[in-house]
């Protein structure tokens, strides 16, 4: 894992003092709310429905147990005993006092964490593959590249007042577990035929009100130029992205309006110029970072067999664990989606327990997934049963990864000032309704957003739900056929929306259509792609 | 016209008023020009040797195009005064300075103590720009 | 009726204008008639409230009921965590929101 040196530490410490000073100036009336808002947002502090909300960055979703423990402590000390893990691999606290914000940041800084650029029109926290460093299919560990992006983007002087927010993701395998093509810049680290490492750039993806899949604008940027290339992508956007309409200000609109070819031409021109400016970090810096992501000391020859005699354990293993690159190890997902629970929420106590388990069983490491779960990336198979028993005893053993109960949901109108409808109650009802059927239904990614901003990734759900406000009443649209994986696609709306109970019925009907039409080992998404929308429409509205 | 509140240069300020980019093209003797957010800074590059002052206007602080304009001008070798004018707030000035601005004429004057703190807040920087500060990357591997 | 709501600047807590000061309880909200803009400008300038705005509401036997569900959720608390609302002991409190 990455460890701060004195430079990194000085940076976050200075940020704490800067923010304390900004809060002081606001409380004393030296700056207005209009002036303060972008400053607090650039530090992840929102004013939501019930209180201030603080979004803490978890760079590329990787945490040590000490960091995780601190997140649990903050939940208890400054919030109401829980936190919410988000689709951008971050954590949010819902009940923060402005006057406490500086102290929270200081606590975070003590474990090499921060809330820098977790909101605002700047480069946000970079996300990555939750199995990075453990996945059997990766070309390299993508996180050193994400860490380099973190440093480059932190307080970037030119890109702190972009037309709109800017999200980047880095992966390094063909299977996309980070929705890479739905980011402003998605980078896939690749190896060319000569065996050299490079970065494929996908620019202009995103969800929100105009969902778009990012086109590849350069399939291979040499790795010792990829920060410069990123700078070129950003500079063209900063100069020419639309600023007249916030709904058209994301880079996807610029790429769309200019056309991929013209945008690429401008980037390549800027890139050629910037190469002469020597802004690329030295390769030695990448090597320094890489050394910190070296494999943990795996035990050679650790037994690769599992005792599957406990059927509940076997079910959990089959659903929640994935193959590890190291024989004798496994990557285990802790579902934060108990039946009827609030997706992504964890209590301070649960967070600390997961921290302890990571320390004991996963080389001190955890990951947050974009599906709002937690991963213990390096568990020895010999320890897995013991680990599972602890999880099971503490309500963290739900065996539903990628099943219909593993719902992604934004906070919705229960918490969020932008929301038009509540997301969580819908997730809870669907989870309860289909809990007995979910093993039979198999992989089904259900994603719920409470407004068009799409924090719940509804466009990319095999089944997506979008909450809207219809004359003051919550209403829910149903979408089918989205995917955030390597076969990225955007869901299509089925037709007229439903009320809260109606949408739960509609989801159940959609799963029935699938089960009735399923051929062989087809997933819901496969069947939908084969038979199309019509049979679903017929069942829903016929 | 707002006063220059901070200036990090030793030469005499230019007395000429800054002209717009459009009229600059016609006035071959103008030494001062004012860039608006929509202007292309690169249009000035052929004329940098005769320019002594470039003002970059920030009509609203959230419009960050002027940051790119400044870096482009400095990267092209412009050594004259680069002045940020308009809605220039205390929490922007350190970024502006890093992008190459060496003079600040905020519409509403800044609290001098706050500005002093802002200019000096971050002892280290991650990114190299043309401001001459060594980036952390360079220091780590110097 | 027209009532005023916002958040406390320091704590972020939801507050309602009761005619004299800002209350945590929507039941205390008073009709401000045509004075919304004047009160809002004065109170925000004095930093007694943050991000405040005027909304429509009705008064019935249960008290003051904001017209929009968003403000009813603000008035009570998250519907999915009754334990964290202003009425944790009342399991049916959430019905008022819907």
Content of β-strand of chain B: 15-25%
Gap between N and C termini of chain A, in Å? Answer: 55 Å
Which architecture of chain B does the CATH hierarchy give at level 2?
A: 3-Layer(aba) Sandwich
Shape of chain B: globular
User: Nearest-angstrom radius of gyration of chain A?
Assistant: 23 Å
Low-confidence stretches of chain B: none
Give the CATH level 1 class of the largest domain in chain A.
Alpha Beta
Core attributes:
heterotrimer, A: 542 residues, alpha+beta, Sulfite Reductase Hemoprotein, domain 2, Sulfite Reductase Hemoprotein, domain 1, Alpha-Beta Plaits, 4 domains, 5-stranded antiparallel β-sheet, 17 helices, 37% helix, globular, B: 142 residues, alpha/beta, Rossmann fold, 6-stranded mixed β-sheet, 5 helices, 6 strands
Give a quick rundown of the structure.
The complex is a heterotrimer of chains A (542), B (142) and C (98). Helices cover 37% and strands 18% of the residues of chain A. Chain A is an alpha+beta fold and 542 residues long.
Ordered list of secondary-structure elements with their pairings:
The complex is a heterotrimer of chains A (542), B (142) and C (98).
Chain A: H1 6-27, H2 33-41, E1 45-47, E2 52-56, E3 62-64, H3 65-78, E4 82-85, E5 91-96, H4 101-109, E6 127-128, H5 143-153, E7 168-171, E8 185-191, E9 197-203, E10 216-222, H6 226-240, H7 251-258, H8 260-275, H9 283-292, H10 311-320, E11 321-323, E12 329-334, E13 345-347, H11 348-361, E14 365-368, E15 374-380, H12 381-393, E16 408-409, H13 424-434, H14 438-441, E17 446-449, E18 463-470, E19 473-480, E20 492-493, H15 500-517, H16 524-531, H17 534-541
Helix pairs in contact in A: 1-2, 1-4, 3-11, 5-9, 6-8, 7-8, 13-15, 15-16, 15-17
Chain B: E1 6-7, E2 19-20, H1 21-26, E3 32-35, E4 53-58, H2 65-75, E5 81-86, H3 93-98, E6 103-106, H4 112-120, H5 136-140
Parallel strand pairs in B: 2-3, 3-4, 4-5, 5-6
Antiparallel strand pairs in B: 1-6
Chain C: E1 2-7, E2 14-17, E3 22-23, H1 36-45, E4 50-60, E5 63-66, H2 69-76
Antiparallel strand pairs in C: 1-2, 1-4, 2-3, 4-5
Question: How would you characterize the overall build of this protein?
Answer:
The complex is a heterotrimer of chains A (542), B (142) and C (98). Chain A has helices at residues 6-27, 33-41, 65-78, 101-109, 143-153, 226-240, 251-258, 260-275, 283-292, 311-320, 348-361, 381-393, 424-434, 438-441, 500-517, 524-531, 534-541, and strands at residues 45-47, 52-56, 62-64, 82-85, 91-96, 127-128, 168-171, 185-191, 197-203, 216-222, 321-323, 329-334, 345-347, 365-368, 374-380, 408-409, 446-449, 463-470, 473-480, 492-493. Chain A is of the alpha+beta class and 542 residues long. The radius of gyration of chain A is 23 Å and the shape is globular. By secondary structure, chain B is of the alpha/beta class. Helix content of chain B is 26%, strand content 17%. Chain B is built from 5 helices and 6 strands. Chain B is globular. In chain B, 42% of the residues are buried. Chain C is an alpha+beta fold and 98 residues long. Chain C has one domain. In chain C, 18% of the residues lie in helices and 28% in strands. Chain C is built from 2 helices and 5 strands; from the N terminus they run βββαββα. The longest helix of chain C is centred in the middle third of the chain and has 10 residues, at 36-45. The radius of gyration of chain C is 13 Å and the shape is globular. Chain C starts with a strand and ends in a 22-residue tail after the last helix. Classes of the chains: A alpha+beta (542), B alpha/beta (142), C alpha+beta (98). Chain A binds chain B through residues 5, 7-8, 10-11, 14, 17-18, 21-22, 25, 30, 35, 38-39, 121, 151-152, 154-163, 235, 238-239, 243, 273, 277-279, 281-282, 284-285, 288, and chain B through 37, 61-65, 67-69, 71, 75, 89, 91-92, 94-96, 98-99, 111, 114, 117, 121-130, 135-141.
